[in-house]
Every structure is written in C-alpha cells, then in structure tokens.
C-alpha cells in the first residue's frame, strides 16, 4: 500500500524536520545532520517495508498501522479494548523496527502502567521469521485492532489462507458480533 500523507509527515517529524515543512509549500532549510539522519532512517524504513510487504499491503483489516500511529496513539486506541487486542506498528524510537502492543491483564508481570505489553521486532529478526509468524505466535494477542476502521479481527482469520479457510472462522465472526 502507498504511504499516506500522514505517514510521510510522521517520517519527516521522526527525522527531525520542522513540522511546518511537510504542511506548507514554503522552503525550509535543514542542516546536513538532519538530512543524514533522515536518509539513514528512510533506508531502514525501506528495508523494513520490503521485508514486511505481504502484511503491510493487507488493508481489510489493516494489520500494520501506518507511521502516524505512535505509542501515545496506540495507548489511546487500546484503552477500552478487551484483553488480547493488539496493534502492530512502526517504532518511533527505533527506526526499522516494528512493535506489537497488546492489551494484557493488569496482573501480567510485564504490563506497563496502561495495561499493555510492547514487544519490539527488529529488522534482523524478520530475516529469521516472517512478520506474520511473529504475529501468529505472539502469546495472548488474539485480535488485531484495525485502527483505521475501528474494528477487531481474530488474527487466525487474517492468517488462514483463503483455500484452507475453516468454517469455524465463520462461527468466530458470529461470536465476535455477539460479544463485542
């Protein structure tokens, strides 16, 4: 899928460009250091996007949130969701990495103060296991939150290939509709 204007703006901000440079047509001067940082981060992002393209391109549901979804947005989006709901997003603090953020029980030993567990997936990790394997095997994460459509989807439905789709998945849909 293409990068949205919000994605481009988020990338520019992460690289240290002034916010006004992506929202106006005025020319803005940046330092060589800002440019070098942008180029380095952008290269990491491109490598990551190439590695996760098959999942990045999924749009119904949107499995990987865009660059506009930062940690604060993730906390807000998951605040009222049930345990097991998760978001896969790009790391703002570690370019070239993904983060799986999952609503967990407050009693979870690694839960943060917002009741979330954040797991980082580095680019190097994605050369050993595909992103869908990381998502599938992330214990406790049961439902993807598509932040753009505000809907939860059982991750088993997303990663079950179309030619082996189980009737049980349709039953899960009915169950979700009743209890959501």
Give the biggest beta sheet: 5 strands, mixed
Q: So what's the overall shape? A: globular
Spell the H/E element sequence. Answer: HHHHEEEHHEEHH
- Backbone CA Rg: 18 Å
Lateral arrangement of strands in the main beta sheet: 3-2-1-4-5
The number of distinct β-strands equals 5
Task: Tell me the β content.
Answer: 5-15%
Report the average pLDDT across residues. 84
Low-confidence parts: 162-167
Can you give the helix content as a percent range? 40-55%
Question: Which class do the helix and strand fractions yield?
Answer: alpha+beta
Cα(first) to Cα(last) distance is 29 Å
Number of helices in the DSSP assignment: 8
Summarize the topology.
Elements lengths: L4 H10 L5 H4 L8 H25 L14 H8 L6 E6 L7 E6 L12 E6 L3 H4 L2 H7 L5 E4 L4 E4 H4 L8 H13 L1
Parallel strand pairs: 1-4
Antiparallel strand pairs: 1-2, 2-3, 4-5
């Amino acid at each position: 899928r293409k990068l949205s204007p919000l994605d481009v703006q988020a990338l520019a901000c992460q690289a240290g460009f002034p916010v006004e440079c992506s929202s106006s047509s005025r020319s803005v001067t940046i330092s060589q250091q800002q440019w070098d940082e942008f180029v380095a981060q952008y290269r990491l992002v491109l490598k990551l996007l190439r590695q996760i393209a098959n999942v990045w391109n999924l749009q119904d549901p949107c499995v990987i949130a865009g660059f506009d979804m930062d940690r604060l947005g993730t906390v807000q989006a998951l605040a009222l969701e049930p345990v097991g709901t998760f978001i896969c997003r790009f790391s703002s603090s570690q370019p070239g990495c993904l983060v799986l953020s999952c609503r967990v029980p407050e009693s979870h030993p690694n839960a943060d103060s917002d009741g979330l567990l954040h797991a980082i997936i580095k680019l190097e990790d994605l050369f050993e296991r595909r992103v869908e394997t990381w998502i599938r095997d992330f214990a406790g994460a049961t439902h993807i939150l598509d932040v753009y459509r505000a809907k939860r989807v059982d991750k088993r439905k997303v990663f079950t290939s179309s030619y082996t789709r189980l009737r049980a998945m349709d039953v899960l849909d009915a169950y979700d509709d009743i209890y959501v």
